[in-house]
Amino acid sequence: MWQPGYSAKASLNFWLLVLTCASASAADLAPAAPLPPLPWAQASWTGFYVGAGGGLSSLNNKINAQPGPDPSSPLSASLNGLGATGTLATIGAGYDYQIMPSFVVGVFGDYDFHSLKSELDLNIPSAPLSLHGEFSVDRQWSVGGRMGYLTSPSTLVFLSGGYTELSASNFTANLSGGATNVALAATVPTIAGGFVGAGFETKLTTHVSLRGEYRFTDFGSGPVTLPVVGGTDLNNFLAVRVSPTLQTVKASLNYRF
Fold it and tell me: Cβ distance 124 to 130 under 8 Å?
C-alpha cells in the first residue's frame, strides 16, 4: 500500500546519495595543469637581428629671413615652403643584450629611402625678384642605441637616440623679375644631426618580432647662400638661415637570430 511519508523519505535519501557521490567524484579530480608558456615568450632578447619595413616622414624647415647688409635691402621678405610629407622604406640591423630580467640595451643601424619633395618660394618686392625652387630628400642613414623595459617577457618598450645623415637631390630653381628669367641649380650638401625616439617591439614567434618607432631629428641651423644674378648679390638683400627638422614613424618586421 502506498504511503506518502515513506515515498518522500525515499526520494530525499536518493538525492542525498547523488550529491554525496558527486562530491566524492569532484574531490577525486586532479586540478587542471596550467598551460605551458609560449616558447618565444621566455626566450632571451640577447642576439643579433635584421629587419625591413616602411612608414611615414615629415620634413619641416623653420626659415628666418632678415634684411641684408645693403642699405637699400628690403625691410621684409616673404619666404615659404621647404616642408614636405611622404612615405619611406627602411632596412636595418642591430644587436640587443638583456642585462637583467626586465631590461634590454642595444645598438642598431638603419637605412631609409624617402619620397620627400620640398618646394621654396621667395619674393623680394623691392628688387623686384621672385624665385621658385624645389629639391627632394632621397636617402638617410642612422646609427644609435636603445634602452628598454620588458612589460612582459615578449614585449619591450624602449627609448632610442643617435646620429643621422640625410642626402638630398640638387636644388633647382627659376628666378624671374622684370626682364630677368634665369634657371639656377645648386648642390645641396648632406645634412647631419641627432635624433631621439621611442617605440615598442613584441615577439610574434621564436625568431620574428614586430617593431614600431617614432623619431624626431634636429639638424641644427645653418645659413643659406643665395646666388648672384646679373651682378646683383642676393645675399646683400637677404640674410637667410634655415633650421630643418624631420619626424618619422616606422614599423618593421625583424628576424632575430
Answer: yes
User: At residue 8, what is the residue type?
Assistant: A
pLDDT at 57 over 90: yes
In the chain, count of helices (H) and strands (E)? 2, 14
The C-alpha R_g of the chain, in whole angstroms, comes to: 34
- What letter would DSSP give residue 153? T
Same domain (yes/no): 71, 118 = yes
User: Is the residue at 85 inside a domain?
Assistant: yes
How many Å from the N-terminal Cα to the C-terminal Cα in the chain?
Answer: 85
Query: pLDDT, tens digit, for every residue of 186-230?
Result: 656 678 899 999 999 999 998 999 999 999 999 887 776 766 766
* DSSP line for 39-107: HHHHS---EEEEEEEEEEEEEEEEEEEEE-SSTTS-S--EEEE--EEEEEEEEEEEEEEEEETTEEEEE
**Residue 225 burial by Cβ neighbours in a 10 Å radius (0-12, 13-18, 19+):** exposed
Say whether both 134 and 175 belong to one domain. Answer: yes
DSSP 19: H
Within 10 angstroms of residue 233's Cβ, the number of other Cβ atoms is: 13
Q: Is the peptide bond between 128 and the residue preceding it cis, with omega within 30 degrees of 0? A: yes
- Average the pLDDT over 231-257 and give the result: 83
Instruction: Find out whether 84 and 128 touch, Cβ atoms under 8 Å.
Output: no
pTM, two decimal places:
0.71
d(CA 51, CA 159): 18
Three-state secondary-structure class, residue 15: helix
Strands 84-100 and 47-67: antiparallel
- The whole domain housing 127 covers 45-256
Helix or strand holding residue 113 (H, E): strand 103-124
